Amino acid sequence: MARVAREMVERAGVNVDQLVELLVKNASAELTTYYYYTILRVNLIGLEGEGLKEIAEAARIEDRNHFEALVPRIYELGGKLPKDMKEFHDISACPPAALPADPTDVKAMLKILVDAERCAVRGYTQLCNMTAGKDHRTYDLVLAILNEEIEHESWFSEFLGEGPSGHFMRRGDNSPFVSKFLK
Amino acid sequence: MKKITRKELKGYDGTGGRPAYIAYKGQIYDVTESFLWKGGKHQALHLAGTDLTEELENAPHGEDMLSRVPVVGTLID
């Protein structure tokens, strides 16, 4: 634990235990989403599915990066991850993004993907609101993750016919916002 | 539809096998089966057995989320 770093956050008026609990729940959401996106990605086949596979893969890898980036901050603030993977799964900040009953239904898969991203956008917005101007390091991290989650939402939303995302898929490396936390 | 007082609502806190109810604008919602309300707690910040009308104003989602859970009664003072 980074004792003074935690103390500074407490002194700024943040309930650090609540903050850590939320960071752990969101770390769980990222890792479980990484797992569920793996299943979704392998089932994105055929004429409709292949067009989505690459973008789902980018979101999958970036969600794993989010998990990796969150873990050190949880421990700095005196938190820890559950010792049990099932417990970790069940405290996720977002519901499981399981494969739909018909795994060839690409629209149903897209709905699952966009719902998962929208849950993440809500969660990181909440974390930004809690930490803005108070916990600079956590804010910097959760804002970076929020930027990527918003892009994921807009990618999948575009495929659902809700309107243009306004940008292109990744060119080059993944995690343009979060990569600085992974070095 | 049940009529539930604020005092009674506190008993539906989702712990110890009890159902998890929340109140919003006078209606009681059953969130027991919601993944996001496991153990009677939502996102580390909100507790079942309480009136969340004010808290929802500051939440990162709107009241439309409540359409996903059943209404089981009304809140009376």
Low-confidence stretches of chain B: none
Low-confidence stretches of chain A: none
- Name the shape of chain A in a single word: globular
Largest sheet of chain A: none
What is the N-to-C succession of helices and strands of chain B? EHEEEEHE
What is the count of β-strands of chain B?
Answer: 6
End-to-end distance of chain B, in Å? 16 Å
Q: In which range does the helix fraction of chain B lie?
A: 10-25%
Global structural class of chain B: alpha+beta
**Count of folded domains of chain A:** 1
Radius of gyration of chain A, in Å, reads: 17 Å
The general outline of chain B is: globular
Give me the strand/helix succession of chain A.
HHHHHH
Q: What assembly state would you assign to the polypeptide chains in this entry?
A: heterodimer
The second-level CATH architecture of chain A is Up-down Bundle
* Secondary-structure-derived class of chain A: mainly alpha
Report the mean per-residue pLDDT of chain A as an integer.
94
How would you characterize the overall build of this protein?
The complex is a heterodimer of chains A (183) and B (77). Chain A is mainly α. Chain A has a single domain (3-181), classed as Up-down Bundle (Ferritin). Helix content of chain A is 68%, strand content 0%. Chain A has six helices and no strands. In chain A, α2 (16-43) packs antiparallel against α5 (106-131) and α5 (106-131) packs antiparallel against α6. In chain B, 12% of the residues lie in helices and 29% in strands. Chain B has helices spanning 6-9, 53-57; strands at 2-5, 21-24, 27-30, 41-42, 46-47, 71-76. In chain B, the strands form two sheets. A four-stranded mixed beta sheet of chain B has the order 1-6-3-2. Chain A binds chain B through residues 18, 21-22, 25, 90-96, 121-123, 125-126, 129, and chain B through 35-36, 38, 43-45, 59-61.
